[in-house]
Hints:
The structure holds 3 protein chains of 3 kinds. By secondary structure, chain A is mainly α. Chain A has helices at residues 4-8, 19-34, 51-83, 93-109, 118-144, 151-156, 162-180, 195-220, 230-248, 251-281, 289-295, 303-323, and strands at 189-190, 193-194. Chain A has one domain (51-323). In chain A, helix 3 packs antiparallel against helix 4. By secondary structure, chain B is mostly helical. Chain B folds into 2 domains: 1-21 and 176-215, no CATH class; 36-175, no CATH class. Chain B has helices spanning 24-34, 45-58, 70-80, 94-113, 122-134, 147-164, 167-173, 205-212; one strand at 87-88. The radius of gyration of chain B is 20 Å and the shape is elongated. In chain C, helix 2 (61-72) runs parallel beside helix 7 (258-264) and helix 2 runs parallel beside helix 13 (539-558). In chain C, the strands form 5 sheets. In chain C, strands 8, 13, 14, 15, 16, 17, 20 and 21 form an 8-stranded antiparallel β-sheet that branches. In chain C, strands 3, 4, 9, 10, 11, 12 and 22 form a 7-stranded mixed β-sheet that branches. The two termini of chain C are 34 Å apart. Helices cover 24% and strands 19% of the residues of chain C. Classes of the chains: A mainly alpha, B mainly alpha, C alpha/beta. Chains B and C meet through helix 1, strand 1, helix 5, helix 6 and helix 7 of B and helix 1, strand 5, helix 10 and helix 11 of C. Strand 1 of chain B pairs parallel with strand 5 (109-111) of chain C. Bound molecules: flavin-adenine dinucleotide and iron/sulfur cluster. The site of flavin-adenine dinucleotide has 40 residues of chain C, from helix 2, strand 10, helix 8 and helix 13. Iron/sulfur cluster binds at residues 225, 236-242, 246, 248, 250-251, 362-363 of chain C.
Amino acid sequence: MISLPDLLMPSRSGRDARARRALATLSRQASALRSAPRVPAVLAPKGPPAAKSVVVGSAQKLNQASGVLAFSVLTDSALEHYRGSFRNRAMFTPLVVSTLALAASVHGTADDRPDVHVARDVVFGLTALTGLIGTGFHVYNVGSRQGGYRWLNFFYRAPIGAPMAIAISGVLGNMSERLRRTPRGTPPTLYGLDAGKALSLFTALSLAGTTGEAWLLHFRGNFQNPFMYTPVTIPPASGALLADAALRGGASRRSAARAGMIATALAGLAGTGFHMRGVARMMGGWRNWTQNLLDGPPIPTPPAFTGLALAGLAALDLLERRDD
Amino acid sequence: MTDGLPRYPDYDVLRKRNTVSWNDPTRTAIDRRLAVDRDPHTLTEGEFATLQAICDRVVPQEQGPDLVPIAAYVDQELTLDLSLGYRYAGLPPAKEAWHRAIAALDAESVKAFDAPFVAVDAARRDTLLTRMQKGELKDPAWGDMAPDLFFKQHVLVDIVAAYYAHPTAWSRIGYGGPASPRGYVRMGFGMRDPWEAAEAHPGEEAKAARKNRNV
Amino acid sequence: MSDKILTNREPLRSGLDLEAMHRPRARNGRAPDPHVPGGWFPMREHREDEAVDFAIVGTGAGGGVLAARLAEMGFSVVAFDAGPYFRPLEDFASDETAQSQLFWTDRRVTDGENPLKLGSNNSGKAVGGSTVHYAMVALRQRPESFRSRTKQGFGADWPVDWREMWHYYAEAEEALKISGPISYPWGPSRPRYPYRQHDLNAAALTLAKGAEKLGIKWTETPLATLSAPRGKSPPCVYRGFCRVGCSTNAKQSMLVTFIPRAIKAGAEVRDLAMVGRIETDKQGLATGLHYHRDGAWRFQRARNVVVAGYAIETPRLLLNSASDRHRHGLANSSGLVGKYLMTQSNVAVWGEMDEEVRWNKGPPSLAITEHWNYDDSKDFFGGYIHMSQGPLPVEWASVHTGARGLWGKALQDEMAKYNHMVGLKMVGEMMPQERNTVTLADEEDQYGLKVARVTYSWCDNDKAMIEHSLDFMGRQLEASGARNVWRQPDDTNHLAGTARMGDNRRTSVVDTNCRSWDVPNLFVCDGSVFPTTGGVNPSLTIQALALRTADRIQALARRGEL
Ligand SMILES: Cc1cc2nc3c(=O)[nH]c(=O)nc-3n(C[C@H](O)[C@H](O)[C@H](O)COP(=O)(O)OP(=O)(O)OC[C@H]3O[C@@H](n4cnc5c(N)ncnc54)[C@H](O)[C@@H]3O)c2cc1C
Ligand code: SF4
């Protein structure tokens, strides 16, 4: 069993693969994270663990992150593209790709071997590519309607940021594979940069982008509920803390960033709850789900923050290893 | 499909009666509308028959279970003494206007075709109605009421509004009908919510019919 | 007058036969909460024999706002409405015919060269007035419209500065959480609309397409329906029945906004209460009003009376309140009560698209252009907006019968194209003319009150504007790809005038405070006070003016001039 400390602290070696349970684990993270405040010890992780386990453990955590993101994209694009009646064949692509990314992530989460898995690697590469191409489609879609690039179309046409979520999932997966390849005893790197730093900065950037998307949609909803400010405050602030920890180092900065990531992860889960409540507040509530799941606040999107927070936590593990 | 007009095979807006597209007041209102008393209460049997003959020409319908009892609705309006909210100065109140118009139309019909309106064929009825619309009828039975004004304000309003207030008419034109609490999600060009009528594109009638049985 | 009067026949037509239409609901210390089926608010009640500070006739765009503001300022207020007090969630059907329960369908006679159609398209009868079934288009008049005589060369000037009006517009927009574009493309800059714009339906996209082809600007219509939740109101579900009442409560009508505010602030609302006459004393001051409720005539004493029954009922009530001292009707020393009635032209062009449009989805006018309000190169006075459309079947059929005289198979074939139709409809400024009037006819209504005779004729300028709009809208619709474009050249809608405001007691009925020149404790607060009607839909202007009137009344009270 992967328990809360496992999730939040640097991994220890000796955990073996539990492929069958990995899916269940992903879903259980929700309840595990919710109890986090009761375990302040997680903010002060214990002494330096072995190099290999940190790296592979981080890789596995990245798989969790990419999995959560893929799951969010899968459900969100299913809803949104169903709303769009799948008018264009390409609209099935994110469903297929995010399903594959989800499977690869589950597989990776359960796999503690320090090797690149070729199939996974291909899937993640494809996923990242799909996200980029999808972004292109969405950018085109926004501009193609009357009025072009104006607020109206940013609000209601294909959301520009959505395909980026799947791209991020792919990149995190790709990073995970790169990490696994780290030779024993060498500091892990990603694309030639220190791994902890690279992952931190990438995560911080991703958080900023996702915040932008949340801001756009919450602005459209006029921030009518004060909690709608949550995703535009906590994640970017936490992202900044993470970047700060990566660039300047230090245990206290890391602790702050870790707290931020936990808060972000919780905010993502809470967001789902808020969005469910939002659907209930729409005309006819849940009884009218055929309308309200589509027109109400999107239930699948907030966990994207949770996914990014998991990536942030993995990054912190790596930073910790670097700095110690 | 020879006339190129949109068709919605098998679409029946009443299928949605028990879905979230209808609320209780709507069900009450439509149930009562469908249960309208088909016998006249204000018009005499004879007048009612003439009214039905007029309705048949203004909104021709095929015989069948879906037939909209238009004349019954018009008679009901007269019985309840309803008003649109205004009356042209040249027209008497609705009840009197209809009594007078039916009598005058019969007089015109006898004068032109030697038979009351109900007894002449469709073409002749159309001739008479067209002349009414153009204000060409002059029988003294019209009194100070202008036939063209009556045609515009009553024949075309009372009859046509009664017909297009009926689910049968909605189904025919592919109109979504009642929509509360559920409204619509997809609003762009060519977009259809699964609870809207599906139009039959050439060669895809069966597909549309299938969708329409599942609105 | 008989005490057994069937005051309301609408319940019978509607098929709903709601209790609310037969028996007053707001009484015994409580009033219906429009947001909760079966719900109630506590409501303060006032005795009839104790003079209240303000008795207000009508609870629509003008009366509803004023009742709330005056009560919030601490005045004692009773607001009367002839119509019922609905709870939309439980009372409103999704059906054009049933919802005729919202219209003012009491007897009225129309004549003139271009007799007006009344009822469904311009007169509401409910707590909340016409805003319960209006189309929610919430626009500001351009600055020059308030100085039409001096700046534009026609009509009359308003005794109000446009900047002051724009200040109150902002207040009204905020109170109704208008959903509108982030920046509005015409006129002086205005604050961002409180809620974001709605998405466009295909009908609105058609307007945008045509506008872009012709090189004119368009925008998302500022609408009084929510694009996000607000309190107990959910956002719009795009059901498209707005003009027969919003059973979602997304529409920010007076019924769900200012009326609850008024009651919370201590105002009393009396529903199914038809005011028949304003009483005056020997000094010529108003002392209260006679109203019919529960089958009997009653009298409410009041220190001040406000008439807010809209452009037909307001003059009718004033004329029906004639007394020895006011022989030609109350507040009528100028002889102008009931004169200068204005409607707005509502002509349209319609056409067919190859694609499915399904224009009944969403509020009827999601996109709009004010191009011809702000372009001054026209060969006529005044201006107009035009907007996208989405009529429901009964109304749509009436366009074919009314404008084209279609019947038989020709009508049915046209109706079969319902889901492919698009249209552009203008709201255009018609000229104030003294000959367009509301007078009393020699007929009585169900209460035994003289009914209104409404006389209307278009002038050459009106016709020129209509021609201009039909021509332009026709070109625009064709540019958007519509086929078989045809014209509906005869429609009108909103009303105004008949108790115009002005700077001079000989040429106006009320002064800049909307107070009668003749009867200092009588005010008018509705669309009747408009000296000109402007080229935009009137409700936001009526609401802004009511907000201003409330402030003015408070200032008068402070100065001891009430
Ligand atoms: C179908 C429709 C669509 C519209 N669309 C728009 C739009 O999109 N945008 C816009 O700006 N405007 C629109 N309007 C116009 C707008 O609703 C009116 O201009 C506005 O509501 C008028 O406000 P008012 O206060 O003058 O009168 P109303 O809102 O009509 O209120 C008058 C009230 O007074 C009551 N009353 C009258 N006489 C008496 C009496 N003697 N005793 C007791 N009560 C009485 C009536 O019952 C009524 O409730 C629309 C109107 C209609 C009918
Ligand atoms: S379209 Fe929106 S505003 Fe109009 S009736 Fe429906 S929910 Fe109300």
